[in-house]
Amino acid sequence: MSRPEPARPRPTHFDLVRTPTFAGAALHRDEHLRRDPDRQKEGWASARVLFVDPDGLLAVIRSESRLWTRVGAELAGSPPEEAMLLGEADGTAYWVLCGAQEQAGAGPEIEWLNGHAVGGETGPLDGALLAAAVGLRNWHDRSRFCTRDGSPTTPVNAGWARTCEAAGHEEYPRTDPAVIVLVHDGGDQVLLGRHRAWPPGRFSVLAGFVEAGESLESCVAREIAEEVGVTVRDIRYLGSQAWPFPRSLMIGFHALADPDQPLNVDETEIREARWVHRDELREALARGEWRAAPRTRTLNRATMAADTSTEAEPSPLLLPGQVSIARNMIESWVLAG
């Protein structure tokens, strides 16, 4: 009588199954070109220009899942002062103009969507352009005055710096690092949380901003302990993703934890947290993804304060959309088992 084969041990380490959205290197960021007005003017005639409106919505050909652009020569003889250079790809320069939708001259086939709605459907180049365009626009909107002396600032270097009028101080686009962590038990369970602003059933991995003077690994341990009261170990890096909403860099990790530890949820941010089995995640992934309304912007306080978690019937598990590294991390962990 043959003996049953021993169960295959679950891997405690895994890799991302695909490059995160916005993380590709399809766009060449040329520092020298940003400081060379003559080269900028020379390439403007064949440059491609994309558009962002005052609410941060981008002009998109939704039927083709790509950003809509116009040729620079159609707009002006040289780059307008308000245009921002995103970079180059295959010898073509890419710029962005921010303004009212009517200024773009877009036809009825063009939709204006936020980055969450379209980002997961774009290719590597459009994803890189989207992240740079939205990130730059958000930074400029929040950097109109010098952080040293409070005087007004003016864009320079094709949008990649601002100088203050009082003393000529230069300031550059800011990125706020944040860790995002898939906590698992080394077997078939992951620890997920539901943010206070999310609908019932929607869960994701845990995340938080890096504090001044803090290492990434220390931030992982602190954030998980603060948010759900769990101690983690064996912290390992997975990958990163630009997240220009408004200006973050999501740095992905996974870590081990004992599921027998009691959960102590910080309810100022997290509505609830629970351990989820791999089979339940497979079912949720098969159902597709939760989508916010395409034109959704910042949630108001009333929305964040709403508690609809007391519905008579439990909601099905809803996972983050394809645009996020969180979805990538969850899918990668499920496939590793």
UniProtKB/TrEMBL annotation:
**Cofactor(s) required for function per UniProt:** Mg(2+); Zn(2+)
Q: Which reaction does it catalyse?
A: a 5'-end NAD(+)-phospho-ribonucleoside in mRNA + H2O = a 5'-end phospho-adenosine-phospho-ribonucleoside in mRNA + beta-nicotinamide D-ribonucleotide + 2 H(+)
Q: Which SUPFAM superfamilies match?
A: Nudix
PANTHER family cross-referenced by the UniProt entry: NAD-CAPPED RNA HYDROLASE NUDT12, NUDIX HYDROLASE, NUDC SUBFAMILY
What Enzyme Commission number(s) appear in the record?
3.6.1.22
InterPro entries attached here? Answer: NAD-cap_RNA_hydrolase_NudC (IPR050241), NudC-like_C (IPR049734), NUDIX_hydrolase-like_dom_sf (IPR015797), NUDIX_hydrolase_CS (IPR020084), NUDIX_hydrolase_dom (IPR000086), Znr_NADH_PPase (IPR015376)
Catalytic class of the enzyme: hydrolase
| The organism of origin for this protein | Frankia umida
Residue stretches making up the Nudix hydrolase domain: 173-298
Q: What's the protein here called?
A: NAD(+) diphosphatase
- Presence of keyword Magnesium: yes
Source domain of life is Bacteria
